[in-house]
């Protein structure tokens, strides 16, 4: 791994260890406390406790870094910012489905430089740091490098998504339905799962029309360091919306034409933020 981010990535794994202990201790608990947020999504006591644990450790280990999380107010200011989603896939968590993960990323300015996706109920993690490739396994010491697929045609591609209804509401519903028809295989793996499967080369396209920074940051670097491309629907590289489109790279331009916003169709510079 790149020397400049070795300590940060190790810290992210340690943060994930603590979060895993908290989330697994309450997973499928009969007395799990769940409430609805103003946007009508779920939040559990485990979401809050995991984010509190991560923030407490960062306040000691990286006191000069800013923190952005899903459940609590932003803290700090500066070029280095940790981005946290304590449980990505809370709806699965609440229903006892084991497909959920803690997402931890470090950004320097607009760029993600390190990220860990930890899915303890699946017994797996995925991680990456800038210039060092992407890996999957149970820990830093039990890992294998991963890489995106070599599929070059939509008709041969496997697509993963979250909810068809979100695409219909986004105004790109017809384009998405046409894509579903044209792909070789489609499955709604959803959430982080779509993007790590893409990084492993078992899915070729992953797309969602409405995501927040904490949903995307850790997944973005895992995809790009695995050789893929991660942009918003306007074609801008990185984890800032509108929405997200991740591919193995070879399929990306065609997918932007099919699903992208008018800015992408007009040929906007994908490196602009």
UniProtKB/TrEMBL annotation:
<feature type="binding site">
    <location>
        <position position="70"/>
    </location>
    <ligand>
        <name>Mg(2+)</name>
    </ligand>
</feature>
<feature type="binding site">
    <location>
        <position position="88"/>
    </location>
    <ligand>
        <name>Mg(2+)</name>
    </ligand>
</feature>
<dbReference type="GO" id="GO:0008934">
    <property type="term" value="F:inositol monophosphate 1-phosphatase activity"/>
</dbReference>
<comment type="pathway">
    <text>Amino-acid biosynthesis; L-histidine biosynthesis; L-histidine from 5-phospho-alpha-D-ribose 1-diphosphate: step 8/9.</text>
</comment>
<comment type="function">
    <text>Catalyzes the dephosphorylation of histidinol-phosphate to histidinol, the direct precursor of histidine.</text>
</comment>
<feature type="binding site">
    <location>
        <position position="87"/>
    </location>
    <ligand>
        <name>Mg(2+)</name>
    </ligand>
</feature>
<dbReference type="InterPro" id="IPR020583">
    <property type="entry name" value="Inositol_monoP_metal-BS"/>
</dbReference>
<dbReference type="GO" id="GO:0007165">
    <property type="term" value="P:signal transduction"/>
</dbReference>
<dbReference type="GO" id="GO:0046872">
    <property type="term" value="F:metal ion binding"/>
</dbReference>
<keyword id="KW-0378">Hydrolase</keyword>
<feature type="binding site">
    <location>
        <position position="85"/>
    </location>
    <ligand>
        <name>Mg(2+)</name>
    </ligand>
</feature>
<keyword id="KW-0460">Magnesium</keyword>
<feature type="binding site">
    <location>
        <position position="215"/>
    </location>
    <ligand>
        <name>Mg(2+)</name>
    </ligand>
</feature>
<dbReference type="GO" id="GO:0006020">
    <property type="term" value="P:inositol metabolic process"/>
</dbReference>
<dbReference type="Pfam" id="PF00459">
    <property type="entry name" value="Inositol_P"/>
</dbReference>
<dbReference type="InterPro" id="IPR000760">
    <property type="entry name" value="Inositol_monophosphatase-like"/>
</dbReference>
<protein>
    <recommendedName>
        <fullName>Histidinol-phosphatase</fullName>
        <ecNumber>3.1.3.15</ecNumber>
    </recommendedName>
</protein>
<keyword id="KW-0479">Metal-binding</keyword>
<dbReference type="GO" id="GO:0004401">
    <property type="term" value="F:histidinol-phosphatase activity"/>
</dbReference>
């Amino acid at each position: 791994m790149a020397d400049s981010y070795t300590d940060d990535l190790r810290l992210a794994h340690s943060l994930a260890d603590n979060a895993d202990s908290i989330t697994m201790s309450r997973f499928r608990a009969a007395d799990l406390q769940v409430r609805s947020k103003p946007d009508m999504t779920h939040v559990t006591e485990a979401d809050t406790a995991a984010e509190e644990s991560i923030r407490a450790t960062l306040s000691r280990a990286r006191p000069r870094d800013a923190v952005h999380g899903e459940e609590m107010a932003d803290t700090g200011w500066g070029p280095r910012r940790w981005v946290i989603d304590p449980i990505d896939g809370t709806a699965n968590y609440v229903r006892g489905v084991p497909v959920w993960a803690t997402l931890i990323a470090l950004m320097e300015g607009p760029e993600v430089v390190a990220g860990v996706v930890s899915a303890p109920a699946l017994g797996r993690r995925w991680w990456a740091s800038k210039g060092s490739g992407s890996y999957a396994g149970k820990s830093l010491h039990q890992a294998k490098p991963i890489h995106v697929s070599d599929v070059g045609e939509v008709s041969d591609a496997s697509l993963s998504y979250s909810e068809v209804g979100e695409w219909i509401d986004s105004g790109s519903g017809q384009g998405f339905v046409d894509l579903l028809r044209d792909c070789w295989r489609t499955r709604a793996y959803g959430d982080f799962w779509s993007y790590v499967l893409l990084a492993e080369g078992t899915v070729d396209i992953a797309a969602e029309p409405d995501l927040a920074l904490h949903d995307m940051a850790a997944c973005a670097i895992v995809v790009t360091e695995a050789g893929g491309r991660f942009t918003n629907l306007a074609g801008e590289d990185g984890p800032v919306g509108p929405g997200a489109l991740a591919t193995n790279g070879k399929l990306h331009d065609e997918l932007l034409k099919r699903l992208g916003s008018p800015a992408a169709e007009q040929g906007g510079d994908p490196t602009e933020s």
